[in-house]
Design a protein that fits this description.
The chain is α/β, with parallel strands linked by helices. It contains eleven helices and 14 strands. The longest helix is centred in the C-terminal third of the chain and has 16 residues. The structure holds magnesium ion.
Length: 297
């Protein structure tokens, strides 16, 4: 449960706080959204926000929007945990790669020449496949989303989340001030498909993540995108940590001034990962306590 302090309005803060309570499928109610209603952009706090000083009680009891005038809110400190997907959270049993090959075939009418996948964004992989034919990129990425969606059921059947992943996500989710999302080269639609196939979406806030479909030149650019989204929704993160399986994930974290936790479950040789000098290198996420400590720092 995060704690949101509702403070008395001061003379120079003439804003109105509107609380929306939402009923969750499990019957628990939550105060999920806080808007500064007068001339301010929506200010949204994620699931599990607890409102103190009475307004929250009323919101939960009524189960609908109430107005609570004369208050301002302060966001609690946020640690932003950004997860890589392939090789870190899930093994998609090759369906991600096959979807790319099908998409290329659909757009170009021939199979692609072999290209390197590990640690690269979909945007980078697509450009490598297209050998500079940039104008075909939007169509290829569209076909990629359709191809993976068609493979969703097979991916669920043949792929898996890595051991300890659900437990680690759940444990971090329960911690105060931790927001978890994705920092992935996958385009957003495919990121949602891959983690959704194994039930991991419940612990992740997709809205504040950054994806291969976001504008970027390098993977590290995506860290800034995720930070900005997190700041807009939760207040500025105090720190960011990337969890990934390749030296490129580690480098992206370092280039962006974030901590790097490497896990050796995926596509990289542990020695290569060690050489990239992550803050922590884990063999896998089976030891939940060790994983959480490594990530929280
Ligand atoms: Mg990866």
């Amino acid at each position: 449960m995060q704690r949101l302090d509702v403070l008395p309005q001061s003379r120079d803060v003439r804003r109105q706080l509107v609380l929306h309570a939402r009923k969750r499928p499990d019957g628990l109610e939550q105060a999920a959204e806080v808007s500064l209603a007068v001339g301010e952009p929506p200010y949204t706090l994620g699931e599990g926000v607890q409102v103190v000083e009475g307004a929250g009680d009323q919101a939960r009891r009524d189960g609908e929007s109430i107005e609570h005038g004369g208050a301002v809110c302060q966001a609690p400190p946020v640690l932003l945990v950004l997860w890589d997907i392939d090789g870190t959270l899930v093994d998609s049993a090759g369906h991600g790669k096959h979807a790319f090959e099908e998409a290329f075939q659909a757009v170009m009418g021939r199979p692609p020449a072999p290209v390197e996948f590990a640690g690269r964004t979909d945007h980078e992989i697509a450009l490598a496949m297209l050998e500079g034919e940039r104008e075909r990129l939007p169509r290829l990425l569209e076909e990629l989303a359709a191809a993976l969606e068609a493979r969703g059921e097979a991916m669920r059947r043949e792929g898996h989340a890595y051991p300890g992943v659900p437990e680690t996500l759940a444990e971090l989710h329960a911690r105060d001030g931790v927001v978890q999302s994705l920092l992935t080269g996958n385009i957003e639609a495919n990121a949602a498909l891959k983690v959704g196939a194994f039930g991991l979406e419940r612990w992740l806030d997709f809205e504040v993540g950054a994806y291969g479909s976001d504008p970027h030149e390098a993977r590290s650019d995506l860290v800034a995108v995720a930070r900005e989204r997190t700041a807009a929704k939760y207040g500025a993160p105090t720190a960011a940590v990337l969890v990934g399986d390749t030296p490129l994930d580690v480098r992206a974290a370092k280039d962006a001034g974030a901590r790097a936790v490497a896990v050796a479950t995926g596509f990289s040789d542990p020695d290569a990962l060690r050489a990239a000098r992550p803050d922590v290198l884990l063999p896998d996420l089976r030891d939940t306590e060790a994983a959480v400590e490594a990530i929280v720092g």
